[in-house]
Amino acid sequence: EELKIFAPATVANLSCGFDVLGCCLDSVGDEMLIKKNDLKEVRITRITGQDLPMEADKNVASVAVKALLEQIKSDQGFDIEIDKKIKPGSGIGSSAASSAGAVFAVNKLLGEPFNNKDLISFAMQGELLASGNAHADNVAPALLGGFSLVRSYCPLEVLSLPVPEELRVVILHPLIEIKTKDSRSIIKQNVSLKSAINQWGNLGALVSALYTEDYDLLGRSLHDDIVEPVRSILIPYFKELDELVTKNGALGFGISGSGPSVFALCRGDENANKVKNVISEFYSDKEIDFELHLSSIN
Ligand code: HSE
Q1: Is the C or the N end of the chain the one with fewer CB within 10 Å?
Q2: Would you call 191 exposed, middle or buried from its count of C-beta atoms within 10 A (0-12, 13-18, 19+)?
Q3: Using a 6 Å cutoff on CB, does residue 258 contact ligand 1?
Q4: In this protein, which residues make up the domain named GHMP kinase C-terminal (predicted)?
Q5: Cα 22 to ligand 1 centroid, rounded to whole Å
Q6: Are 169 and 294 in contact (CB under 8 A)?
């Protein structure tokens, strides 16, 4: 018994939703093949595309699967093969895709003892291993699709939000690696009341914009007063890119997860392609190699 799956990339935070908001990209992701084995052991049997640990206690996919199996006291073994297309340290949920993909497939192969929402907490164990913090804003949308909002971590409560039909995401991935652990360590631990007011105003408005398909409001809400001002220092040409995509009609722009990838939300394919092209032109004479993706949210 085996299952082949697509494990999607995700954009976490979306500016004003640090650690609580994320969305799922439907055309960027990894492929995984999960098979039952008779060895009562969870093994990573093959990784192609990237250099990642094969030891079961060091790979996020096997760690997440073990958390699931422990919960139901199952000694079923699994072999996990990962064709890793999302680069680690890219900011589009590389570890989340592996953790979420693995628990999703294992749950199916076991006859679905859990629903997709239940799987979030197991996948979060992979995130804990990868970044030292069990955040859910990548694994939740990877498992549920669309937009996810973490209302509460303790107890865990995750909501799915609607996706306006014409919404597109352009992702620029400058090929430098920023570890989530490192880009979390530079964030200030205290927030001023003034910044907090701006942030929850924007986050509330963003949620409203998703329900009402108000693209302009969505664009106005994509600001981050708290984390982005600190993290953007790590991202090459952040300010210039922001100005460039805004001038070319993008709804909003920000850091994808913990970076270095940045995202632009756009309305419709035409605008998304235009934004993608101007970014490509801007970056092509810079010293840093890059990848560009255009995706729907699904
Ligand atoms: N919310 C997390 C962070 C996402 O920004 O650190 C990491 O991809």
Answers
A1: N
A2: middle
A3: yes
A4: 207-284
A5: 9
A6: yes
